[in-house]
Backbone:
């Protein structure tokens, strides 16, 4: 087993243990590998270990990796903040966009999504605990945003993404409450199935609260002084 396969299995085991502890199904929590700053050959090695979902924060870096890895069947998630001048390449080159917090961004993504591609999966980023340094809409804005974004032709609205303050595990429960409240009034409730929260240090708490997708970088890839297997 390669180092990447071992690290991935260790994370999956943590996810499985957290699911078992909280009476949840292991298959209901997805692992998103946060691969920012890691070169394409590392993603290729992680894919060989079984990982298909990758999350990127920086657009130009991600586009370069996509070009180098176009022979692989990968699912690309953009998890950084979405700027208006970046929506066109995001709409054309990603499967998921997590950092949507304004209607204008969703509208641009929908309009700019190429006709030959499936609708773009998006999550609304919510500043769940009111951090000055974090992007995202306030919780009170979510219901109206959901109603508006649900009507866009080339968007598939999937759920919420949150990044609470460290050790603020109560925020995970708040996000789950908001997620459930919105699901009850969503135009397409079957699509509303993704609660993206939890990272390397707090994935167990996030899963206990109801996360369906954990974003793991350091614990999965390790430090950047790795050696690739030849």
Residues:
């Amino acid at each position: 087993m390669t180092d990447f396969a071992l690290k991935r299995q260790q994370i999956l085991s943590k996810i499985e243990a957290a699911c078992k502890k909280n009476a949840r199904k292991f298959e209901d929590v997805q692992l998103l590998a946060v691969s920012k700053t890691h070169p394409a050959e590392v993603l290729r090695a992680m894919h060989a270990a079984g990982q298909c979902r990758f999350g990127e924060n920086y657009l130009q870096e991600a586009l370069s990796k996509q070009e180098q890895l176009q022979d692989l069947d990968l699912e690309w998630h953009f998890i950084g903040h979405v700027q208006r001048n970046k929506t066109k390449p995001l709409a054309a080159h990603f499967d998921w966009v997590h950092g949507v917090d304004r209607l204008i961004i969703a509208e641009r993504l929908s309009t700019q999504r190429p006709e030959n591609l499936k609708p773009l999966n998006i999550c609304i980023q919510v500043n769940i605990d009111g951090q000055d340094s974090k992007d995202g809409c306030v919780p009170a804005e979510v219901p109206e945003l959901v109603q508006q974004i649900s009507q866009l032709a080339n968007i598939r609205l999937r759920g919420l993404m949150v990044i609470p303050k460290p050790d603020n595990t109560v925020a995970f429960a708040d996000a789950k409450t908001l997620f459930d409240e919105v699901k009850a009034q969503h135009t397409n409730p079957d699509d509303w199935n993704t609660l993206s929260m939890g990272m390397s240090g707090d994935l167990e708490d996030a899963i206990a609260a109801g996360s369906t997708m954990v974003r793991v970088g350091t614990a999965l890839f390790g430090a950047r002084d790795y050696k690739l297997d030849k």
Notes: Residues 3-221 form a domain with the TIM Barrel fold (CATH 3.20.20.10). The chain has nine helices and eight strands.
